Amino acid sequence: MFKIIDGGVCAPKGFSANGIHCGIRKNRTKRDIALIVSDVPAAAAATYTTNLVKGAPLTVTKNNIANGYAQAVICNSGNANTCNANGIEIAEAMCKLVSEHTDVKAEDVIVASTGVIGQPLDLEPIANGMKELAAGLGKDSEHADYASEAILTTDLVKKEIAVSFTLGGKECKIAGIAKGSGMIHPNMATMLVFITTDAAISPEMLQKALSTDIKNTFNMISIDGDTSTNDMVSVMANGLAGNTMIESEGEDFEIFAKALNTVTIHLCKMIAGDGEGATKLLECAVSGAKDEKCAKTVAKSVICSSLLKAAMFGADANWGRVLCAIGYSGADVDVNKIDVSFSSKEGTIAVCKNGAGVDFSEEIAKKILLEKEINIIINLNDGDVSATAWGCDLTYDYVKINGDYRT
After folding, report:
1. Contact 203, 40 (CB under 8 A)
2. Given the residues 82, 153, 190, 196, the one annotated as active site
3. CA distance 405 to 227
4. With contact defined as beta carbons under 8 Å apart, do 151 and 179 qualify?
5. Please, what CATH class does the domain formed by 3-273 belong to?
6. Torsions phi, psi of 402, nearest 5?
7. What's the CA gap between 305 and 297, in Å, rounded?
8. What is the CATH number of domain 281-403?
9. pLDDT, tens digit (0-9, with 9 covering 90-100), for 388-403
């Protein structure tokens, strides 16, 4: 039903993209500004960080898409434009620069920034690079890659995906790029994620699909327990696929929501697996919970445990740290019913039954936990609700990266 395709954010009809080095970042080999443009105005939706300290671009974006529409995204890396006296002025100026070099109105621009907090963002390199950025817009996968690269900070890999699906006999496509490696513990948003689709859907239903989806995807990631000041997920839907406009719930809305979820789940795993200094992607799957709150609370608590994350780095099957994280999570559970297993492509091993340890081979457990993708499987045996959270191991390199991040 949903097929992964090439093309990145340019896969949906009517989208072009580009990314260049304009001079915000000192390293000239690093692209530092991205632009994504729709041929026509698009329905727009977004979610934002709940951190009280917010980047200026979020305020400007909120104002720009208050009417439910946008036509372009501009995003720089290397500077968060947060806690700056002239932050709003700079973010608005970035939108105006897009307008000056494209057919997009300034008030139809989604603007974002990522990087160091509290350092002034100089508009000059952006202004000097805007002509090249706009003139170089392209509709192929190469240009989508350029945009994907330009939004990265400490990320080691690009994060992008495109999916095709069918609505009412019309082929539709949805795609996304993301950045995120550190300062990730979202609440109602995450990192920076830009999604494009050529499906026709009203702004109201687009926002409903996004707001519902992130509760089970981006809000279930944690790298280090720090909620960023600049987190934002945005979607533009330009309707060029020609499907009947989705204006209410029903079969088409459900299909669209599942296509969106296919994209977001993929990006979630890429973000978690590329955590700063990480060597392993951790997935915590909780089942048997009495309600959704309980399942999510347990999954998130386990994935956030620094002690468990360190144990996974060392391939140590220290299952007691799983029980410990569940115990302080605040979830309403019966600790005497909990089962725990560890799993990877090397197999599955049970380490805890009914809240107590069971005999297992440390040698086999070590082999399982040395893999790059680890599943922590928890059955609370107290209901039929499940939830999944994603994270990564905690390594020496995380401290090294953040010990001199600013300098």
Report:
1. no
2. 190
3. 17
4. yes
5. alpha beta
6. -90, -10
7. 12
8. 3.10.20.340
9. 999 999 988 888 877 8
Residue ranges per structural domain of the chain: 3-273, 281-403
Nearest residue to 354 via CA among 329, 390, 319: 319
pLDDT of 106 strictly over 90: yes
| Distance separating alpha carbons of residues 301 and 297, to the nearest angstrom | 6
pLDDT digits (tens, 9 = 90+) for 351-362: 999 999 999 999
For residues 12 and 241, the answer to whether their CB atoms sit within 8 Å is yes
Please give the structure tokens belonging to residue 164.
Answer: 């095709």
Q: Which of 47-56, 169-178, 255-264 has the lowest mean pLDDT?
A: 47-56
Q: Which residues contact 103 (CB under 8 A, 6 or more apart)?
A: none
In this prediction, residue 156 has a pLDDT band, given cuts at 50, 70 and 90, of: confident
Cβ neighbours around 190 below 10 Å, total = 29
The answer to whether 229 is a known catalytic residue is no
What is the pTM for the complete model shown? 0.88
- Of 254, 39, 41, whose CA–CA distance to 168 is shortest? 254
Name the pairing type of β-strands 232-237 and 192-197.
parallel
